[in-house]
Amino acid sequence: MTKTGRIWAVWAVGLSAYLVGVMHRSSFGIAGLEAAERFDASPAALSGFVVLQLLVYALLQVPVGMMLDRFGARRMIAAGALTMAAGQLVMALAADLPVAIAARVLVGTGDALTFISVLSVVGAWFPARRIPLMTQLTGLLGQFGQILSAVPLAAVLYGPGWTPAFVSAAALGLAVAIAVVAVVRDRPDGAAAPARVASPREILHGLRSSWLEPGTRLGFYTHMGTQFSGTVFALLWGVPYLVAGHGLSAGAASGLLTVFVVTGALAGPLMGELTARHPMRRSWLAIGVIASNAFIWTVVLLVPPPAPPWLLVALVVVLSVGGPGSMVGFDFARTFNPSHRQGTAVGIVNQGGFYASLLVALAVGILIGHSGNGEYTPESFRVAWAVQYPVWAAALAGILVARRKARRRMAAERQRVREPVETA
């Protein structure tokens, strides 16, 4: 195999691991109403499934970044695939709520190991100029895993049933783990070996230094504000909202999730190219995504349900850009931090959107239960989705403050070294 072919093969297998991981992550979204019936779960309890999964994911991001720097991407990706497969197998056999919750904890754990490890593969195997575009492609093509859950997995769920659906998901995860072990390598042959493993004191110093870097915080708030709305929609509450809130069939709702993935994938390369060509305008891309999300939700929530189909399509299309927008946060982590703490910085950034997602997912479930007396009604959804606005406001404030501090630091650095520096 040629060198170029080897690069693309390693990336393709890493991408497939992330794609299947997204399928595992989003599988509960298409099974939400069935899970409520199977486990006799209230809306708040149902949101607890995903909240716990996201909480595990978010809490593990910094430890996983440190482990990535220590053990390498290949081991981390394979371990993540096996852990998620185990979680899906447990879910397939679960008959009560505690076992099902444990299954989602396993999925969240494996999910946490996967994405930033795949990004590490991108950074190791591709030239620096192509990394922003390849990062976007990885993130967005990986989102096609939602189509795997929305179409074939949903078909098995609504046909043969619960257990065959989740067993098939577990089998696919096992197959991906085998492919990763066979093909993926941490870095190209002849590349410099990674730095020595840091001591615990050095690890803590690196964590502190990464957070104190304004560019890392800029990435954190960028990821926070752009990602959560689409994640909560696709991961849990989108299908119930479209079905119970607007009267769509389950098939039509799944079709809109497919539109979500496809339009996001089309937007990803454009966002990546804009990030690479205009590094001084990266933060404005993020602000634009946040503003567009808030605007489309305002329009949808002001229209008496059921909303016209074109407006629901517009909602899905705008939300789909949140994924590409969140990837800009990782570019901040890459360009503002030295190579020896890249994993830690990316882990910090990746926490932003998922902490916001878990809080919003939980709040939506609680508000539906409170305002709708435990029933999924159009009015209860309208009240519940309004919880997003304070999160957008907090993210925008964080971006503006961190951007100002990052620019001040870079101006001081430019005066010291007298050379151009990438900015926000």
UniProtKB/TrEMBL annotation:
Gene Ontology cellular-component terms listed: plasma membrane
Residues in Major facilitator superfamily (MFS) profile domain copies: 9-410
Keyword tRNA processing in annotation: no
TM segment ranges: 45-64, 76-95, 101-126, 138-159, 165-184, 218-239, 251-272, 284-304, 310-333, 354-371, 383-402
Keywords: Cell membrane, Membrane, Transmembrane, Transmembrane helix
Localization terms from the record: Cell membrane
InterPro entries in the cross-refs: MFS (IPR011701), MFS_dom (IPR020846), MFS_Efflux_Transporters (IPR050189), MFS_trans_sf (IPR036259)
Major localisation: membrane
Topology versus the membrane: Multi-pass membrane protein
GO molecular function: transmembrane transporter activity
Protein name per the record: MFS family permease
Organism: Thermomonospora cellulosilytica
